[in-house]
Amino acid sequence: MAFKTIMVQLDVDNIAAPLISMAWDFAQRHEADLIGFCAAEPHFVMPTGADDRAATKAMWSQLEEIEGRLNCLSEEFLSAVNGSNRASWRGEIGNPTWQLALNARAADLIVTGSPMIDLVVDHHRTLDTASLILAAGRPILVASETPAPVKAESILIAWTDTREARRAVVDAMPFLITARDVVIATVDNGGPAPRENVADVELFLTRHGVKARSEVLDSRRSEPAEILLQIGQEIAADLIVLGGYGHSRVRETTFGGVTRSVLQSGSFHRLISN
């Protein structure tokens, strides 16, 4: 599978230029079309004692502000791609996460900025990356905090023997076949046959022409996510591939988890599938 259409999501309130530049560079190198996307929706809690006219006026004011911002982003995006006929724009009034999940039908890959995991954000105007992973039905490329070009020369596959991880490996194939070094890392937490599992994945990738090797890591060293991120640093990974929320988002939120920890690690580009 090749990436033929890429969609880059822009938050209505954030600086867009670095992410547009990264996505356009990526699309050109893959000879893919690029769709710029942004959505936001008005949200108003009526103050005590305010009448309906005041509430309506406030909502219209928010709506006009969002439409103005979408128009500015459209102009910025189309200027950045030099009016190329391989690029197009979609601006929507609506919840940014759910509108993006719906529009994901038009793309092979969704590119987003690095999420603000521990900050309280307004999801009427800001993407909820975790919800998008569960809803989009497409792989999500979450850019590093400083959106550098996606070289994908050294790739870490954070392997668990789950449906989500198997999906992520296949979704990442356009990256994997051109990488110079691919490490399949799994954490031995006492489950069944981790070495046989990663050996199967290594053989699968080798048959597709991927230069892959595998490592089984001892979970007694530290938390699984911490171990995997340390391996990522050691091999100078410029992309981490993983399946997202294999144990349900609720469980990961309550007990911590690899998906959340990797999303928090903004020094890497991350390709996540569910």
The N- to C-terminal Cα distance equals 17 Å
Number of helices: 10
Structural class: alpha/beta
CA gyration radius, whole angstroms: 20 Å
How would you sum up the major sheet? 10 strands, mixed
Q: Which oligomeric form is depicted? A: single chain
Number of strands: 10
3D shape: globular
Following the backbone from N to C, one meets helices and strands in this order, namely EHEHEHEHEEHHEHEHEHHE
Question: Helicity, in percent?
Answer: 25-40%
Low-confidence stretches: none
Strand order of the largest sheet: 3-2-1-4-5-10-9-6-7-8
Strand portion, in percent?
15-25%
Mean pLDDT: 90
Quick overview:
The chain is α/β, with parallel strands linked by helices. The chain is built from ten helices and ten strands. The chain is globular and about 65 Å long.
